[in-house]
Amino acid sequence: MTCKSTFLVIVAILAGAASVSAQSPLTISVDAAHPGPAISPDFSGLSFELSQLLPADNGVHYFRPDNKPLISLFQTLGIKSLRVGGNTGDRNATRLPDRADLDSLFAFARAAGVNVIYCLRLHDGNAGQDADVAKYIMDHYAAQLACFSIGQEPNVYPKVTNSMGVIFPRPSYADYRKRWKQFETAIVAEAPDAEFCGPSVDDNPLWPREFMADFARGDHVVLITAHLYPGRSGLKVPTPEIGRDRMLDDSFVEAYQGLYDGFVPAAISNHLPYRLEEVNNYFNGGATDVSDTFASALWGLDFMHWWAAHGAAGVNFHTGDKVGAGAELRPSKYTAYFSTANGFLARPLGYGIKAFDVGGHGQILSAAVSNPQDLNVSVYTVLGDDKQIYVTIINKEHGDTARDADVSLIAGAGFNHGRVMSLTAPNDDVASKTGVTLGGSVIESDGSWNGKWTDLARADAGSYTLKIPAASASIIELESH
Q1: pLDDT class for 368, splitting at 50, 70, 90?
Q2: 453-460 LR contacts (CB < 8 Å, sep 24+)
Q3: pLDDT, tens digit (0-9, with 9 covering 90-100), for 266-322
Q4: What does the pLDDT look like over 198-232, one tens digit per residue?
């Protein structure tokens, strides 16, 4: 075969591929007439180590009402729930917050417009001391409190070896139930209006079911909480490429589904909301060159929408400059942002959280999706509180064989104006750590953001065509007139 004939064959193949692509777009038909359940107004949350409440070496608190850049960042990201706990609030606590620390936390919460999930110590804890803390919070800050949790991941409390070398195993659920009830009774005696959430266990559907069987019909329980790190340990990821691939393929979704199937039906039957109060992609502070890359932005956006579509009351991404990893604090790779001398540096995950804030307020809509090319794409549709349709399309295709998504979007004749905002990284590279933008704008160190919408050309009445490049996401707003 000559070079010329080879060239013609390649052109023909490419032309054929282009023809198939043009004839077989990703087609999304939105049903705007039958809105479903509403997404909780406080769906978006962050989770911090309880040690973050303690003053720094200079005596200044992190959570304080005059921390303007942090308040601005919370408001920009749409954060409405602040959970404090982690290992430093329970089994690895060295110092618990005092009243001045609590005052500063709740003054921040009021200024930022967030409610607080507060973890009380169970492991080696004291029921009377927890009751004193709960009473102080309820007496002064009940309006800012969502609930108290008692204990951090009690299903993975460490085994204990005594001086004789005898190993005491991790507590069973029965051990936990007895101790939880003891603490709850002591707390309610001092703070009769206290409300609780639990059992705050990691990727374990059995304990939430048992917890509901024991406490759902009384004992002031108002919320079922679980933790999830679908990639498991960040220290055991074979390579960064594999770690990023897992974050964007079906293996993570299978972990979500397994946890959901394991305990959410019981929560529904008990008429209790549920929340993932501590989550991220890989635990032990995340995985190097994985959790801190643009892949985490696409993952985080997908994760939030998946759980919103499955009825969760919200998710709280564990974050902070340092996070608990076993018995120590380690620099966080999965954090949504880092502290800087002048404010804060939003990391890729923070942009995913902000992208959800753009298109994740309102009621869930159903949509018929045709994906003849089997693209690695997620689609979520919401009827916004403003009565516009928001369609989030996440193209998780990446690598050498990644494909763009040619999209045909059909919403109906009443939606005759569309615009788009895109979440992108340089060169559509999921390994990027910097240069991420949403709506063409970065999140500034003072927490501000100035992203822009771009108008869409209409293909027909209520119909639009657009391209979603590989390794990117777009939020489309369709306005009714």
Answers
A1: very high
A2: 453/419, 453/420, 453/421, 453/477, 454/419, 454/420, 454/421, 454/422, 455/417, 455/418, 455/419, 456/418, 456/419, 456/420, 458/416, 458/417, 458/418, 459/408
A3: 999 999 999 999 999 999 999 999 999 999 999 999 999 999 999 999 999 999 999
A4: 999 999 999 999 999 999 988 899 999 999 999 99
Among 285, 306, 314, residue whose Cα is nearest residue 45: 314
The residues near 5 (Cβ < 8 Å, ≥ 6 apart) are none
> Do the bridges between strand 415-424 and strand 437-438 make them parallel or antiparallel, or are there none, so unpaired?
antiparallel
Q: How far is CA 269 from CA 43, 209, 478, in A?
A: 21, 11, 36
- Class in CATH terms, 44-359: alpha beta
Break the chain into its structural domains and give their ranges.
Answer: 25-37+362-480, 44-359
* Residue range 25-37+362-480 in CATH 1.10.760.10: no
Average pLDDT of 189-201?
98
Can you read off the two tokens belonging to residue 71? 């308040």
